[in-house]
Amino acid sequence: MLLWWNYLLLMAMIVLKGWYMTELSAYFFGLALVCGLVYGMSLNEMARHFVDGMKDMVYPAILVGIAAGISIIMENGNILDSIVNAFAQPLSHTPQVINGGLMMFVQTLINLFIPSGTGQAVVTMPLMAPLADVVGITRQTAVLAYQLGDGCSNCIIPTGAMMMAAISFGKVPYVRWAKFIAKWLGLQLIIGFSFCVIASVIQLGPF
Asked: Residue 131: which pLDDT band, with cuts at 50, 70 and 90?
């Protein structure tokens, strides 16, 4: 119950007060202190657990930094426009209604090489947002395509650290896991493609 109240409070503050990274970071830091006190931890214990948690975030943080560097290079080197145009050319010859779904499949492929959701967003959204403008779908549809393309394939990509760690703990060979999950992944992609088509049809956007 407390978890749901926490989510509701966060959504309310984001929508009503415009909270972003600074406010959210401060909120979660304060929440961690409160949880530590509730569990009876000393300040030293909380600090030690905080450091242990930060160790797990070093790899994603490095990826985000590298991804941001890639984005800056692409933008300042005038590479971004060329890439958008390269993506837009084939999509300009396909029905507008399926462009969102095709963008989802592109994100799925990119997820294999950039398994970090944040890193993928930093690299691809500067491409996908203007691409959405070019092919005639809303930017919200492009975001939906990113979310589905990133999320669905996390259950099978061998570059995903969490998934590989989970099947290692369970002593499940990757090939066996891939054969098991492939049909469910296919179903998710079909459903995701359908949602992207619906988003394209209704011109999903801000209310």
From this structure: confident
